[in-house]
Write a structure and sequence with these properties.
Elements: H1 3-21, E1 29-32, H2 37-42, E2 46-50, E3 53-62, E4 69-76, H3 85-94, E5 102-109, E6 112-119, H4 120-130, E7 136-140, E8 145-152, E9 161-166
Parallel strand pairs: 3-5
Antiparallel strand pairs: 1-2, 2-3, 4-8, 5-6, 6-9, 7-8
Helix pairs in contact: 3-4
């Protein structure tokens, strides 16, 4: 699947499966930034608005068995020096630059959605402390592979919220 199709599919799955599962935590209106500069440059996937309050969200949705970790993009095999999520978010953390309010990861599997929610800054503080010990996994694209790092839920403490919902 092309990058654009993957992004569209992730966007659709978030709105179709994740948003209904987290409506108690996030009632209100969702706005996608799919394909916008906000998405590409800062990892802002959704803007959530409720009662005049705006919350920013980074998201990822997998159509797979639910894992007990967040996945963070480390590098591409075709361009290993090109900055991806790990380098840009750690740069933002270390220089106190803007980051989204929350990171939400969902897994759609066998008529259920499994969702994990964490304040983004907390997630990246943990990544900064443990980056060298986080395990890799890869996903193939049409031209190369993307290497992700796993951030195990057990490193994240009490700020982690999990939701499971049947659809």
């Amino acid at each position: 699947m092309s990058r654009q199709k993957r992004m569209k599919q992730g966007d659709t799955n978030f709105l179709k499966y994740v948003v209904p599962a987290i409506k108690e935590q996030f009632p209100g209106h969702w706005i996608s930034t799919n394909g916008m500069i906000l998405d590409y440059e800062s990892g802002l996937d959704f803007i959530h608005v409720h009662l005049g309050k705006t919350t920013t969200i980074s998201s990822r949705v997998w159509e797979s068995f639910p894992m007990q970790h967040f996945a963070i993009r480390h590098y591409r095999t075709s361009a290993p020096d090109r900055p991806l999520e790990v380098s840009s978010r750690l740069e933002a953390l270390k220089h106190n630059k803007w980051m989204t309010d929350f990171t939400i990861e969902g897994f759609v599997y066998r008529s259920r959605v499994y969702v994990a929610i964490i304040p983004t800054r907390h997630l990246w503080q943990v990544v900064d402390q443990h980056l060298d010990t986080l395990k890799d996994f890869c996903c193939s694209n049409e031209n190369d592979m993307v290497i992700f790092r796993r951030v195990p839920f057990n490193l994240l403490g009490d700020d982690l919220v999990k939701v499971v919902m049947r659809f």
